[in-house]
């Protein structure tokens, strides 16, 4: 079953009860998943207008431009949306590590035999 | 600020109030983001045990192995988890289109000038 939201040209994000959609950022050059975060309508608009990934921080309860303090911004090369418009995929050019731990990607650990193995 | 959940070797997913974490699947060969979905503890365990991506369907309220009816399973090459353990990244080998619309990826539309442009 499809709908105009699923196939049409109209940007019509399906925000959840908290007014959010999920956003995933990948390195446009390598395809590596860098981070997952959330966006409200304002964050999505700011991202598209500025060309720099901007999210809604659920913990801080405010708009949050990635890298606003660290300088590690994510420059948006391309923004895509999924079929039911509740998730956005940003292909980005990262300016520095995406993770607050200093790792290039937040996904720096592999799940193996029920444990986590960090990248070298 | 970091914690053992963020840096340690223990798999300790941070499920939300509904018992879910977010999962993103990318094509292991191309890096393309194929789909986003959710997992509860049972879905994560089933994914790791079977090697095939299994999610929790919020709309159907049940465990859902991707491709269980279509045959378009996502064979897991590698599973990773992010710093705060509320998101999983599956690098997969897709057996057929990931999207129910027949598109290879659910993210078949680009956001451009406030509108959506479908891939050719």
Automatic annotation (TrEMBL), chains A, B:
Pfam families: PRA-CH. It is found in: Cytoplasm. GO terms for molecular function: phosphoribosyl-AMP cyclohydrolase activity. InterPro entries: PRA-CH, PRib_AMP_CycHydrolase_dom, PRib_AMP_CycHydrolase_sf. Binds 1 Mg(2+) ion per subunit. Binds 1 zinc ion per subunit. It is an enzyme of class 3 (hydrolase). Pathway: Amino-acid biosynthesis; L-histidine biosynthesis; L-histidine from 5-phospho-alpha-D-ribose 1-diphosphate: step 3/9. Mg(2+) binds at residues 82, 84, 86. The keyword Hydrolase applies. Catalyzes the hydrolysis of the adenine ring of phosphoribosyl-AMP. Belongs to the PRA-CH family. Homodimer. This is Phosphoribosyl-AMP cyclohydrolase.
């Amino acid at each position: 079953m499809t709908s105009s939201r699923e196939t049409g040209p109209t940007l019509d994000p399906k925000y959840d009860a908290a007014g959010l959609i999920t956003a995933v950022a990948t390195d446009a050059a390598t395809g590596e998943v860098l981070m997952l975060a959330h966006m409200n309508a304002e964050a999505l608009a700011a991202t598209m207008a500025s060309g720099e990934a901007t999210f809604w921080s659920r913990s801080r309860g405010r708009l949050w431009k990635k890298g606003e303090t660290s300088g590690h911004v994510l420059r948006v090369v391309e923004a895509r949306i999924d079929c039911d418009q509740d998730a956005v995929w940003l292909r980005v050019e990262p300016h520095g590590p995406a993770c607050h731990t200093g790792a290039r990607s937040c996904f720096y650990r592999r799940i193996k035999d029920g444990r986590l193995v960090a990248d070298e």
